[in-house]
Automatic annotation (TrEMBL):
Pfam families: CBM96 (PF24517), Glyco_hydro_26 (PF02156). It comes from Sinosporangium album. The active site is at E356 (proton donor), E468 (nucleophile). InterPro entries: CBM96 (IPR055372), GH (IPR017853), GH26_dom (IPR022790), TAT_signal (IPR006311). GO terms for molecular function: hydrolase activity, hydrolyzing O-glycosyl compounds. This is Glycosyl hydrolase family 26. Keywords: Glycosidase, Hydrolase, Secreted, Signal. The keyword Ribonucleoprotein does not apply. The keyword Metal-binding does not apply.
Amino acid sequence: MMSAPRARRTLITTSAAGAALVSVAALLTPGDEVKARNQATSDVVVPVSEDTYVTTHDRHVAKGDEWRLRTGASPGERRALLKFTVPKLPPSTCGVSVSLRLLARTSTAESEITTVSTTDPEAWDEDTLWDERPDVGKPVATARGLQAGKWATFDVSSAVTKAGEISFAITHQGKTHVDFASRENTVLDQAPELVISAGADLTADTVTPACDGALWGLYRSGNADITAHESTQLTSSTVPRKFDAFRRYYSFSQLTGSSPNQTVSWPSKRDAELARDRVLFLQFDSGCFGTCPTSFNGVPLPKPATFTDPNVPTDFTGEWFHPKDVASGRFDPLLKAIAKRFKSFPGQLVVDISGEIDSQVEWMENGPFRKAWLAGYKQMWRHVHDLFVKEGVSNVSWNYVVGGFAKDDAIYTESYPGDEYVDWISWDPYDNGCAHGSAYATLNRFYSRLEAGLLGQGAREKNYGIMEFGFGKKCQEAYFKDMADDLKRLPKIRAVLYFDRPNMPYSLTTEGWQGYALAGLDSYLNQDD
């Protein structure tokens, strides 16, 4: 905690809120209506969910039950409409391509152009008529010289940017119309389909990453601006490249304005500027930075708990709003203000709520208060997630962050919000005493528990991340020397952010700074180079 894909890098991330792609998974069962056609080529076939066409010839007749999809501009005009539900892909999948396949029933000349464009999936259904037709959006792909009885294939990768519904309009410029088989054509049984391809077996029980690499980042105390440490040269305080990722810690207590116009003061304008070409991993906390507020826009807030036990980790002392109170809805006006800020943020956010639940509860006796805190944490997470979805926040991925050191598995199993609520699983490993022997051994301590099934099979298909980590000063140089190679042995870790905090056992030495910088120049951590 506070003791804790670069936008231009194609690291596909998922969103449990359905916000980001194509990062499927996972469990491709018949009930999902998603099947693997050929595991050797890693294709996943998504069948059309709705199809029809609209025409000026029969303006008042719905065509959703017809065996064909007809399109063309002469004579008269016809447009075919298709709708698909894109699933989620394993979070470690990269290099995804998506093709639309239509079985042509008529041939066209090389001079005739068939165009696939996007359209609003909510603007039509199979009963839609010509006068109700949806607007044709951005052209995605074209084809010429279609052959009857052959598949026409269109590359629609640029249009499939998230899980959920996607819709296409098919138009044709030529001397006559062209027909394709529809999903109602039971004789041919060759309905329109999307084919999702990647370099890994998307149906395997374990996910092999289709591409390598991890985001490389830094956190410095006080949400410091990391650009002060970016340069074209390696010095004692700068690295010769940009960081891929940065971290921010915020709290419910950081409010601005007065009632009735109070809101949170984060994320900041500077955060938005940095996030233009870096990934922002943001935590917001029900633990207060200082004194907790007593109200929000005139609405009274519950009294916080106070952690003063001498066994409480330093960064977790003070006032905390109980997660069960957040889950109850009593903080919803505040949560809606946060949702509004996130919704207006000009980029993607990877968000965690009150990170390191293990640090929050391990000191507590294994009694009712601890059990209530754990149960409340899971309920809080789900409540916040669902509220954000309801508020239309679509640029957030969800990151379950723990310390990863607690021996009691129940802390994790009882607090984990559930696969449908989580996109990333991250932890904060430290080896202040240089006892583990390598970066690999340090990072693998919790990685291996996840891979052994600590949080279930679904959790193994998430992105893994290291939100903060630290090495003792005596072993920094040796650990960083092998770090890039060590990460290649931990391929599900897709982000690493060092926590360089002053006057701590893990504060970066001159040799440590240079070692971390050189690790960041390795192609595994510097794929844009």
